[in-house]
Amino acid sequence: MWTADEILEFVRSAMGTVWYGLTARVWGVRVGAGCIFDGPTHFKRYPTSTVTIGANCRFRSSPRSNFIGLNRHCALSTHAKGAVIQVGRRCGFSGAVIAARERIVLGEGVLCGANVTITDFDWHVVEPARRHSRQSGESSPVEVGDNVWLGMNVLVLKGVTIGANTVIGANSVVLSSLPPDSVAAGIPAHVVAPLSLHDPSH
What we know:
Order of helices and strands: HEEEEEEEEEEEEHEEEEEEEE
Radius of gyration: 17 Å
CATH class: Mainly Beta
Oligomer: single chain
Number of domains: 1
Number of helices: 2
Strand content: 25-35%
Helix content: 10-25%
Structural class: alpha/beta
CATH superfamily: Hexapeptide repeat proteins
CATH topology: UDP N-Acetylglucosamine Acyltransferase, domain 1
Largest sheet: 8 strands, mixed
Shape: globular
Strand order of the largest sheet: 2-5-8-11-14-17-19-20
């Protein structure tokens, strides 16, 4: 038997899924079947850019949808002509921000813990004169392999490839590529252990 809180949460999730699914389509974002939106998800698609979300993804933006401590809503945005955000099937996001000026590709089954940020460009340049003229910095594509798990508050920056199955520890900053089947952590993130893909009891 469901409690009143569970029923209310189900209704909120269902309403959010309908509303933010429609919002995505208004922005020209392609959303696969079975996607769920718990709370507001923000979209901004630059003209002639592409944002594609695979089937059965879940976007958690409501604080009630993840009690670890979300501090913002999910947001996907492109910032230049021809930019691409491609999200594979069965991915999960909690207060995640994904912003592309060039190309960001997430494989299938990627999990983004609370408040993860993935961006493929420097939002500001170092030189003051260029910064004050609002010029964007350099960009380079980002690729996140299948079944990667990005822990809470992880920051993934431009030019990075993260291999399949790799787990990134909470609060890490990923500045360079990481191999598959690894556990990585730190600032900058580096491999701290291999990932065991098999239950040692078998």
